[in-house]
Design goal:
- The chain is built from 7 helices and no strands.
- The protein is mostly helical.
- The chain starts with a helix and ends with a helix.
Length: about 190
């Protein structure tokens, strides 16, 4: 519960930070791009919730290597499904942005691709968190997710003043890479025999 609550908090802090550091235009573009790309994150959340019971059974039997291989297979499947969606955002992001917010928000199309890439990278996060929880380390999952989430605010506070709205997308992808690295490293340390 704490992990989900902190993830929700971080999701709310990001638009506030973008608005504060980049202004209302940047916040508006981010809001449109964020809404459009939530379609990628939904299956991963469901997978993480559904996988927990099975991962807990495997962990209870001491089959931690099977937990890791199950996560790797499930993540591979979800990413294979999400990559074509990223391609769609790359090809038609401007059109999606216009449909969602009007012509004034067409610039959100480029940001949609960055967010789609970040969300595709983060598809592994819910199953990794479920695996850590199943292995009896929910606090570790919450800590890694929190560190990853708030690293975005730090990255934005450095990059937005200097590089403007163009920094939002790369910062979000960097945060996704960091979050995945933290969760994967945490799971690797817990899965060692």
């Amino acid at each position: 519960n704490a992990d989900v609550t902190l993830a929700e908090l971080a999701a709310r802090v990001t638009p506030l930070a973008i608005g504060w550091l980049g202004g209302p235009t940047a916040a508006g573009l981010f809001a449109i791009a964020q809404r459009a790309t939530t379609v990628i994150a939904q299956p991963a959340q469901s997978l993480g919730q559904a996988a927990y019971a099975e991962l807990a059974k495997l962990a209870a039997k001491g089959q931690t290597t099977l937990v890791v291989s199950t996560i790797a297979r499930a993540s591979g499947v979800t990413m294979a499904i999400a990559i074509p969606v990223c391609v769609l955002f790359g090809l038609f992001g401007d059109t999606f942005a216009r449909l969602m917010g009007g012509d004034g928000f067409a610039a959100a199309g480029g940001l949609m691709l960055w967010l789609a890439i970040a969300r595709t990278l983060l598809l592994c996060a819910p199953p990794l968190s479920a695996a850590l929880t199943a292995l009896g380390r929910p606090g570790l999952s919450a800590t890694m997710n929190l560190m990853g989430s708030f690293s975005l605010v730090a990255l934005l506070s450095i990059a937005l003043p200097d590089w403007g709205q163009g920094a939002i997308g790369p910062c979000i992808v960097a945060q996704a890479v960091l979050t995945m690295a933290l969760l994967a490293a945490a799971l690797a340390t817990q899965a060692r025999p």
